[in-house]
Sequence to fold (504 residues):
Amino acid sequence: MRTVYEAVCAQPPGWIALRGSAGEVSYGALRAAVEHAIENLRETAPRVIGLALDNGPLWAMMDLAAMQARIPLVPLPFFFSAGQIAHAIRDAGMDCIHTDQPRQFEQLLASMGIGVRERSEFLIHGQPVTEFRLSGIAPVELPPATAKITYTSGTTGNPKGVCLDSDAMLSVAHSLLDATGMSPQDNHVALMPLSTLLENIAGLHVPLLAGACVTLLPFEETGLRGASGVDVNKMAATLAAHEATTTILTPELLRGLVATAQAGALVSSRLRFVAVGGAPVAQGLLAQAAQLGIPVYEGYGLSECASVVAVNTEDAHRRGSVGRPLSHARLGFAEDGEILAAGALMLGYTGNTPCAFHNGYWPTGDLGFLDADGFLHITGRKKNIFITSFGRNVAPEWVERELALHPAIAQVAVFGEARPWNAAVIVPSSQMPEIFASIDAAIEQANQRLPDYARIRRWIPADTPFLSANGQLTPNGRLRRDVIFDVYRAQLEHLYEEDQYAVL
Fold:
């Protein structure tokens, strides 16, 4: 397989590779910048690099240089807390940080008690990079051939560091190149942080393999604010102004894009492939996007599998599924329906954390099945399954998906652990008085499609939407069920008390 750097070197030097706020970077200029960065890395010889840069061409240059120089790289998301960044530094044995926001990181390191033995600055393609050489960070034994360590952000505590080699990431990138049909005529506009593995591989490596252009703008210009905030009007305007042909969204970003389009905002007329992943996507939202002519394709993946495992494409699209497995991927299923994945797997976790490989496959923790045509369907998270007081297992995502098919329901969380029947917390799609009757009808319709033990008997309206900002969604759009339950615990328990009184 041709590496990303080899692909960059093979493209006509005059073609445009990257666009940023400071202008365009040709493939020839990108190659020169990467070579310059490689020379700098070999001269300073860091052990493990932390990359803390805003989205932009500079991020791409440093990423490619670290891979080519065979130095492990740790992308540090700006939406991580100070404690999470400090954990990543120590957990990965990081002795060096490259950043374009030195004041912020100088203060952060000082606040976390991490010493700096040397600070210097160098230029890559005319852009300044500040290098902090850290002191007092013990070396960590990493799996051999570790090229990148990605830290997942969907936890409330310290996330695990997933160690990946270049071959695994490259396998995924080449499979995505084949599946998406990326070509030199494409312009990918990156809206998600490059520090997320999905955008790093699918939004940077794949276009460069194809000889396409990647538009990398600072978060301020695209409207992204941390992990839980976005100016959707600015996001839509970015796609339109830069004539995006492809982009990647989380379900929440898609919801915002659909809302702005419904309000009359222009979306790029050249869009041909909008990949959505990170969390289940409501079928009603996909239908709304289709009505607006937004070409959305749902996919599925996880960091332990070097990002994408399956994705819908223009040639093979089945709504309700996450697409067919990519060409590199092999899937199996445990007796309980858990998806087992192989083909491009992590080397292991940092800190020698035990990994539960299953005969060469990774147990994803997700439940699902392949249909007769080879499309993968996700039915829920294994850890989210609850058991009713009648001893029936219920995957809440399955029930939520059925409920969310109705346009009256914007979001829903289902609960029923150790209870005789299930209840739901529902975010209505509007505040119109008649919406409650529509939700009652939606529940009745969904119940007709569900077995009795999975049906919803009662529901309560949510006070506010489930958002990352209020802690009820993870940054990639998954429900934080424990947080939602704690917020509505009293109301949910009251439903069951009322039912008991009715029985008496």
Summary: Confidence is low (pLDDT under 50) at residues 500-504. The longest strand covers residues 115-124. The first helix runs from residue 4 to 10.
